[in-house]
Amino acid sequence: MQRAQEDADEDTRSSGTILGSLAAAFPRTLPIMAGFLVLGVSYGFLMTSRGFPVIYPLAMSALIYAGSMEFVTVDLLMSTFNPWGALMLTLMVNARHLFYGLAMLPVFRGTGRKKPYLIFGMCDETFALESADPHPAGTDKGWYLFFVTLLNQIYWVGGATLGAVLGNLANFDTRGLDFVLTAMFLVLFLEQWRQAEARVPALIGLLASLACLLVFGPDRFIIPSMAVILAVFILLDFRSQREAS
Description:
The chain is mainly α. The chain has helices spanning 2-28, 30-49, 55-63, 67-78, 83-93, 96-108, 115-120, 124-132, 141-169, 179-195, 200-216, 222-244. α3 (55-63) packs antiparallel against α9, α8 packs antiparallel against α9 and α11 packs antiparallel against α12 (222-244). The chain is globular, with a radius of gyration of 21 Å. Its main location: membrane.
């Protein structure tokens, strides 16, 4: 009887810990929910406007789960088959996740079987939340990180699916809808420009992109420009390390 009571008490504490972690994660993800639903619906509309069935945005948002790359994939699916170009473009667009992953390895330590999903579900917004406060008071770190990651993915997949369903039902001109990603990045750039103390990285990005646009043209400038930006940053970092030593 005592053993059974101890097991029941342990289950109650475990359930309370899980629910407490969910209760802590949900309000922190509400701002992300607002943004993901709007962008996700736009993405779903865009996919259906290009003739793709609902299953495409649902599966891509769940399995790719990289917002900017999903928008880019729309054009990749509509263009000539070029796996090497798609691979390089994907690597360049999402290369920042390599650094996210390295930074989050200490945070994910001790999360057990949740760790593979935490790695898969990492995105910019999830990284920002989890790196800022990976273990709020009164929560289990593993369950808190799990729920932050899961809720954010649910918002994105739900928004994309909703947009695809509404896109099939709605009857209006969707021309120009693919500009939503450009608008999003423009707003993010302007906000970072306004807040940043050092604007040299932004200027490097602008000048490198403009130069590659002039040299390679509008259809082939993305990969070369990102390669140039990465090379310049590496050289600057190497120079700063030599000066420090």
